[in-house]
Structure formats: C-alpha cells, structure tokens
Design a protein that fits this description.
This protein is of the alpha/beta class. It has 13 helices and ten strands. Strands 3-2-1-4-6-5-7 form a seven-stranded mixed beta sheet, sandwiched between helices. It has a three-stranded antiparallel beta sheet with strand order 8-9-10, with helices on one face. Helix 2 links the parallel strand 1 and strand 2. The N and C termini lie far apart (47 Å). The relative contact order is 0.15.
Length: 418
C-alpha cells in the first residue's frame, strides 16, 4: 500500500508541475501580447450579431455597451427567438432609449430541427448581409463589453493568416450560490485550455465574411449544436489560425445555482467531445485533475480506517499541498487577469476569506467536474434554454418540438444565468 501511495503522490506532483508550467505560459501570453489598434480608416465595415432566447440578467447592459462602440462602421443585428420572447421587449426598449440607428431587430424566421436555435439565428443573420460587410462579429448576451471591444477584436483579423479572433469569459470569484464559485474555479482551467488548443468562444468572436463563405461554415452550422468549438478544425483546413486576444477577457457577473452549473458543465464538455479535435487531451487533463487527487483522498481515508498512520500522514500532506498550490495558481491568474480586464473595478478584492473558500471550492470543483465529464461521455440529449436536442453524431442533431421562450421561464433570481 505504501509503495502505491508514493507512486500516486509522485504522479500528482508531476502533474502539478505541468499545471504550473501551463499557467506560466498563459501568464506570459497575457503580459506580452499587446496589439496596436487600427485607425478608423483601416477598419472594415462590420456586422455584430447577437442571438437571443430569454432575457439574460445583464441583457440591457450588454446592448448599451454594444451601441457605444468606438468603431467607425458597424451595425448591430439582433435575432430574437420570437416576438413573444421577453428579450424582444428588452431589446426594443434599450435601443429606443439609446436612440440608436445602426440596429436591426428581427425574429427568427425558421427554427431548423437539425441544428441549434443559435445556429439557425446565425445563419439567418449572415445570409442577409450584403457584400459591404467584410467582418462578422458574434457576441453573447452575457458579455458586457468595453468601448474598444470591437476595434480590439477586428484589428488582429486583418492579418492574412488569422481566420478568427476571440476572447473568453471570466467569472466573478464571489457570489451568493456555491454554483457561482465552482463555475469560477472550473472556468479558470477552461480558459487556459481554450487558449492552448485554439478554441473560440462564441461570446466574443470575429470572422472575415469571405472566410465564412469560402470554408463552408454556414453549411456546418446548419447541422451543428454549437458554432464556435468546430472553428479551429474548419480554419486549419484552409491554413488559417485562431487568435486569442487577452484584452477581450470579458467579466461575467451572473450567478449560477448548483443545478444549473451541472447542466452547463455537461453541455460544455459534450460540445468539446463532439467538435474538439483534441478531445482526448481534455479527457487526460480531467483524469489527472479530478480522478488522481480524489483517489489519493480516498486512500487517505482508507488508511485512517486501517490505522496506518505513516501512510495517512504522507497522503494527507501531499493532498493538502496540492490543493494549496492550486489556490496559489488561481490567485496568481486572478491578479494577472485583473491587469488586462477592462472591468476590473467591478471585481471584488482578493481577501483572506476568499482564499479560505477556495480550499473548499477546489475539491468540490474536482467532484463536479469528474461527474460532469463521465456524464458527457454517454448523454444523447441536451437541455438548453427549455429546448431538448437529441444528439446522434456531431452533425446529426435533432431539435424536439419547438416552443417560444416565455416570461415565466425566467429564473426567480434575476441575477442567475439562464
């Protein structure tokens, strides 16, 4: 037993070294990757597309931010799932309040039964664009962006080898619900993985219009569950790459319950399994990050019951050291992200109490992550904003009976993610 315990501990410490190395690579990229923004006359005309189903907690803030962009030529194209949707009135009221003239609000005309509703909306919006739009920017309703967001998103896209530019979401480290805290921890790892693997985030994403048509992207979306994870593979076939822009880490202030968290994590992992060419690396990372420390913790409990105090002490010391190091890693990343995120003034201070909470949150995140990963391996249907999608293969998706999103579907707490 002692031999196997020491072998597991050595493996865990080796994995910790890898995690620290990957973190340092990401931090170096955050610090070194600054860009010189293009001037007004260099920026192409851009269509910003926002697809809505349900009124997200900060939808009005999102719309106001999109209408205040420091960008010479852009139009906001809003596709709402239906006119019955609560998001329809929020969008109309906000646009009227801002007296915006560069906005078009349209209902989804055809809800395809062989792709997600978001993909249907994107196809509709892109198909209606005329040839004057050289760039298409996608944004989600949970992204409250800063004034130079679009300029920062489009600038790197002008490089001939860059097919898409993207940012990522960054959640608050404090909240009322445990789901909010666990989502924050899990997302830190996800942000690093998405950077390393070149995975786009559809909440902040720009693509050249020409690239969309030349790569047959619309045809892929017409059969897909998600629009973003598949992009790296599509672009790579045309010798194009994805560019992650550090300044486009967007602060998300929404809350999340444990029930919503589990559904959200399973959906994220399922989409990765379906469309991520390096899915096996995600699985390996999850095994080392969740199974290994939990196995060591279980062995610690077993040895306690067997009164093997020497082995128990070794196991407990190493497990505690590992969790403590993860607290340090997450704290370092939080500090570094605050240097580039535009809304850092909205982020709570890093307190001693926050660090203590992380000692509890990190093991909980491991358990939730492990369960969500195993569930994502065999689930064949997804619940997404009150619609069920049946999954037979990556491009064999079936949307069950469509129904508009109603006001009574909104969460009781208006700060909770849909």
């Amino acid at each position: 037993m002692k031999f196997w315990a020491i072998a597991l501990l050595q493996t865990l410490l080796g994995w910790l070294v890898i995690q620290i190395t990957l973190t340092l690579i990401f931090v170096y990229y955050l610090r070194s990757n600054s860009i010189e923004l293009l001037s007004d006359n260099q920026l192409p005309k851009t269509a910003v597309i926002l697809c809505l189903r349900g009124a997200d907690p900060f939808l009005s803030n999102c719309l106001k931010a999109l209408l205040e962009q420091d960008y010479p030529q852009y139009d906001l194209k809003i596709i709402v799932d239906s006119q019955e949707d609560p998001a329809w009135q929020v969008a109309r009221d906000t646009v009227a309040e801002c007296n915006a003239t560069n906005v078009q609000i349209s209902p989804l005309k055809i809800a395809s039964t062989v792709c997600s509703l978001k993909c249907s909306s994107l196809i509709q919006a892109v198909s209606e664009l005329d040839s004057s739009y050289k760039v298409v920017a996608l944004v989600d309703a949970d992204a409250v962006v800063h004034p130079t967001w679009l300029r920062e998103l489009v600038t790197p896209l002008m490089h001939p080898k860059v097919g898409a530019t993207t940012g990522n979401r960054w959640y608050l480290s404090q909240g009322t619900y445990w789901g909010t805290l666990i989502r924050y921890i899990w997302n830190i790892s996800a942000v690093i993985q998405m950077y390393l693997y070149g995975i786009c985030w559809g909440g902040t994403l720009a693509i050249k219009t020409q690239v969309i048509h030349e790569t047959g992207m619309l045809e892929r979306w017409a059969r897909g569950l998600s629009e973003d994870t598949m992009l790296k593979g599509i672009l790579a076939k045309h010798d194009l790459k994805v560019k992650f822009v550090p300044s486009l880490l967007i602060l998300n202030r929404e809350e999340c319950t444990l029930g919503n968290l589990m559904n959200w994590m399973k959906r994220q992992l399922l989409i990765s399994r379906l469309y991520h060419s390096q899915w096996w690396m995600v699985v390996m990372e999850a095994v080392f990050s969740t199974l290994l420390p939990n196995l060591i913790f279980v062995l610690f409990l077993v040895n306690i019951l067997l009164a093997k105090w020497d082995v128990s002490l070794i196991l407990f010391t190493c497990y505690s050291l590992y969790i403590f190091c993860l607290v340090l890693i997450t704290t370092v990343l939080e500090i570094e992200v605050r240097k580039v995120i535009s809304y850092r003034w909205l982020m709570p201070n890093i307190s001693f109490g926050t660090l203590i909470k992380k000692l509890i949150e990190i093991p909980l995140t491991h358990w939730f992550y492990g369960y969500a990963l195993m569930s994502s391996m065999w689930i064949s249907k997804v619940y997404w904003r009150k619609i069920v999608y049946r999954i037979k293969s990556p491009f064999n998706i079936q949307l069950t009976k469509y129904h508009p999103y109603q006001s009574d579907n909104q969460p009781v707490d208006n700060q909770v993610s849909l």
